[in-house]
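Chapter summary example: a protein plus magnesium ion.
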Amino acid sequence: MQALIFDVDGTLADTESAHREAFNAAFTEVGLDWHWDEPLYTRLLDVAGGKERILHYWRCIEPEEASGARAAQTVAALHAIKTRHYAARVDGGTLPLRPGIARLIREANETGVPIAIATTTTPDNLDVLLATPFGADWRKRFAAVCDASTTAVKKPAPDVYWAALDALGVQAAHCIALEDSENGLRAACAAGVPTVVTPTAYTRHHCFDDALMVLSHLGDADNPVPELMDEIERRYVDLETLRRWHGHASFATACRPA
Ligand code: XBP
Ligand code: MG
C-alpha cells in the first residue's frame, strides 16, 4: 500500500446534517417553501453534488420550470447561498472529525505516506472543515485535493478518483480509499481502488458488498472500533492495519478467477 485517498463528507466528518440544514436555510432565505427533512435528504443523497441534488429535486417537483433556460443559473445562485450557510455552521471547528481521522492523517504525514482527497463537495467546504483541526495550511498535508472543481462528473463516476491517482502518481491497486457511501464506494471501485467504508446514519443502509472492510469508524486508542474488539493487538485502524488488509485484498484479487 503506497497511498491513501480520503472522501470528505461522511468520512472525514459526519457533515450531512449540517449540509441539510444549510440547504433548508438557503430555501428559506430566498422564499422557497421547500424543506428537506431527514428521510427525504437521505434519499436525495443518492445524487452526489449539491447543485445536482437541487436540480434533481426541482425537476421532480416542477419539471417545466426546472428545464428553463435560466435553471442552471438559478441552481448555482441557490447553491452559493447554501454554501454560505454551511460555512456559517461548520466554521470554527464546530463539526468534529470522525474517530481516527486526525490520527491516521498525522501518521501518514509523519511516515511519508502520501494522502489525497477525492470528494464531490465544493472547495470552500474543505477550508471551513479542515482549517480548525489542521490549521490554515491544512492543504500541505495532502499530495492532492480533488473536489467539485476538479471534475465535472460526480461520484459514482470514477473521475475524481482518477484525478487523485494521477496527482499521486500511484497505481489504483497500490492505494486504499476511505469512503462512507455507496456512491463513493462505486466511484473508488470503478477506479480500481480497494476501499474501507465507515458508513454514517445517512448511508448505513447502502450496499457495501465490494468494500475491503466496513467499520463503524476508524477508532482511536480510547475509542475502539466495535468490529475490531476481538483483535488482541490494536482495536483501531492505523497504517499497519490498512497495509495488512491491503495485502489480503491484493492476494484475493490475484486469486480471483479470470
Ligand atoms: C458528498 C456530496 C456533497 C455534499 C454537499 O460529498 O455528495 O454534494 O453532500 O456538498 P463526498 P456540496 O464525495 O465528500 O461524500 O453542496 O458542496 O456538493
Ligand atoms: Mg462521502
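Key point: The mean pLDDT is 95.
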